[in-house]
Each structure stands twice: as C-alpha cells, then as structure tokens.
Specification:
This protein has 400 residues and is of the alpha/beta class. The chain has nine helices and 16 strands. The strands form four sheets. It has an eight-stranded mixed beta sheet with strand order 1-2-4-3-5-16-6-15, sandwiched between helices.
Length: 400
C-alpha cells in the first residue's frame, strides 16, 4: 500500500474521533489569552496518545514534539486555540456552552485537525524520519498575536524547522477541496485611533467655534486620498473607519472633540511604513489648517502574510497527489489579516485553505458570524493532508 493510501486509511478511521474533538472544542470556546480549559483538553489527548509536549507557551500554548523512525530535519505545523466574542445562533447539539463566546473562525477545526494529524503521524512513525513540531497557539484573534509571542519565546528554534504549515477553514470553498496561493496572500492590519479637538459652542453660531465634526468630515476625505492617490494601484490597500463619536454635542450643540477608530491594511511592508508617515502628516496638517488639533495613534498589527513560493509550490503538488488535481484551487488575495504572518516573515511558510462549505446542507455562513459552521467531512482531509505534507516535507529535505 502506498504511503498516501495508508494516511488516507488512518484519516478515515480516525475521522469520527476528530469530529468529536472538534465538537468538544466548539462547545467550550475561550477567548484570546484565556484558553486554559482548551489547552488542558488538548494536553489530555496528547498524554493519552503518548506524544510528548510542553505547555505554558505565551500563556496557554502547547508545543508537541513527535520523532520519526530516525534522525532528520524538523517541520512545524500550527493550529490556533482561541474563539471570538460572538453569541452563537446555530441550533446544533454542539453549540457553544459559554455565553457570548463562539468558535466562529474555525479554530476548533484547526486544533482538531492538528491533533488528528499527530495521531496519524504517531501511528505511521516507522514510515518517516525527522521531527514534527506541532504548535497549538493561543491568541490569534487579539493583538499582539500569539504567534509573535511564541516566536520571541523560541518556538522556532532548537532545532529550527525547515518550514512551517498552517491551515485555515474557508466556508466559501466546498468541503473536499483545498486552496493555495504563492507569495503575498493576506494583508497587514493596523488599528487607527484619532482624536480631533476643536472648540465647541452653539450650533447657531458656528463662526465662534472650530467645529470638530466639520473638520473630521474633511479629514476623512483627505485620508482616503492617501490610498487613492499615493498607493500603487496594482497593490491593494484599504483604509476604513468603523467608529465615530463626539464628546457631548446635540442638534444645536457643537462638541469640543470627535473620536475616530479605523483600520489600515496593505500588501507591501515598504508602502505600509510610508502610509503610516502620510497618515500622521495629513492628520496634523488638515487639523491645523482648520484651527484644530488631531492626535493619531497607530497600533501596528499583524504583518503581510507571505506563503513562500517554493514551499507552497511543493505543498500544492502534495495536495494534488493526495486529493487529485481537481480538488486543489488557486486562492485570491485577501485583505483580511492573520497572525500566522509573523511566522511567514521569519521562515519559509505555507498558509493554505481547507474548504468547509456545503450549500446543499445550508452551511454557507461566513467567518466571524453567529451562524458559522463547517461541513465536518472536511476534517478527514484536514487531518490527513496535514500529516501527509509533514511527511513529504521531511522526506524531500532528507533527499536534498
């Protein structure tokens, strides 16, 4: 029996258990940096299977280390643990038991798939050489991102993996398919916090004020031109303000201050830094020209996510061998952000998508929504393909 067939057989045999793991994690979601029970559950499964691990990474992270039948290179696999502050609307047996918290981004699928992959690798230990380092990472959903903290703590050292692979669910792709993209595939994400301070007064006497609401409207338009007239149009950028409010004010009262909150996203790190400079300059200049002041705080978030070209090209070929060419798709660039990007900035990385949608079954809701769910047949691919890619990466590194 070919190695792929052995992996597929183990993935099929273990599918029900992986689904059970996913449902348990889904029922008991925990927010970023609060994943204590999630980590304890994963630790219990690793202990049950005899897979060594260390805990306490960036709070509640775990790192499992599995040795093959002989010495060789190291490959890293990553899953995330945290959930979102969303109240689940699905009427299913495994709906969230924790009020106001939900696995609405598929991290339960990611962790269950990685556990399933480790069990396959453990069962087929005689078939591969080297080391698999499985990273169960906390706090993907909250700055500064668990990935950045784990890297600082040395998760990619001693020895350094030859590559790292990360999997993410994609509800717009049907279960049974996976997707890859070489190079830049997700945006950086920075948070913007502005305070525009003018001089308030009576709404009937605006000439005696420095109206921060009027100034803010001008400022928003000016800031949008940073993207429309300074960014290279072939490299997408996004500037969005999602929240605006004033200190006081009424139908006939002009307030003293207005506050804005938004996000800036880019696909080029050099342009990202230049845009930060321009944002600061425009905020200061427009406000001063209209007799006001503007304080801008830029909270720098996740960097651009880059799937290493050679690593991703190999991974795609492995996926085609495992699933068939028709089941592997090319992904579009996404302006969403992912803290897996931190890994991609410091080593060869491949971030791929696992199709989890099923239109016929009504499983179509998007990520970060109260009715998000997955077609659980995808978990068989989620665990099997990850195990296969780890073995393939190690085998090719040894051959080189």
């Amino acid at each position: 029996m070919h190695l792929i067939e052995k992996i597929q057989a183990h993935a099929q045999k273990g599918h029900a258990d992986v689904v059970g793991i996913r449902r348990h994690l889904h029922m008991y979601p925990e927010l970023s940096f609060e994943e204590q029970e999630t980590a304890a559950y994963i630790a219990a499964r690793l202990t049950e299977w005899g897979i060594p691990f260390t805990s306490g990474w960036a709070g509640h992270g775990l790192v499992a280390v599995l040795q093959g039948s002989g010495p060789g290179p190291t490959v890293a696999l990553r899953a995330d643990l945290d959930a979102l502050p969303i109240t689940e609307a699905n009427e299913v047996d495994y709906r969230s038991r924790n009020p106001g918290v939900m696995h609405a981004c598929g991290h339960d699928v990611h962790s269950a798939s990685l556990l399933g992959a480790l069990r396959i690798l453990w069962s087929l230990q005689s078939e591969w050489k080297g080391t698999v380092r499985a990273i169960f990472q906390p706090a993907e959903e909250k700055h500064p991102g668990g990935a950045s903290l784990l890297i600082k703590e040395g998760v990619l050292e001693n020895p350094r993996p030859s590559a790292i692979f990360g999997q993410h669910v994609l509800p717009t792709m049907p279960a049974g398919k996976v997707g890859f993209r070489e190079g830049v595939c997700m945006a950086s994400a920075d948070e913007l916090y502005l305070t525009i301070e003018g001089k308030g007064g009576h709404g009937a006497m605006p000439h005696l004020t420095r109206d921060p609401i009027a100034i803010t409207s001008t400022l928003i338009n000016a800031l949008q031109q940073i993207v429309s007239r300074n960014a290279n149009p072939i490299s997408p950028s996004v500037l969005t303000f999602g929240r605006i409010w004033s200190d006081g004010g009424a139908t006939n009262v002009i307030p003293d201050k207005v506050h804005l909150e938004g996000t800036f996203r880019a696909l080029d790190e050099t342009w990202r830094e230049e845009a930060h400079r321009l944002l600061t300059s425009v905020c200061t200049g427009v406000a001063q020209s209209m007799g006001a002041t503007c304080h801008l705080e830029i909270r720098k978030g996740y960097p651009t996510l880059i799937s290493d070209v050679e690593t991703t090209r190999r991974a795609r070929s492995w996926a085609e061998a495992y699933l068939g060419r028709d089941a592997v798709e090319e992904l579009d660039i996404r302006m969403g952000a992912e803290d897996f990007a931190y890994y991609s900035q410091v080593m060869p990385a491949c971030f791929y998508r696992l199709g989890t949608g099923n239109t016929a079954a009504g499983i179509t809701s998007g990520l970060h929504t109260p009715r998000f769910d997955v077609d659980e047949t995808a978990l068989e691919i989620g665990s099997g393909l990850m195990a296969w890619m780890a073995m393939a990466q190690l085998s090719e590194q040894i051959a080189e």
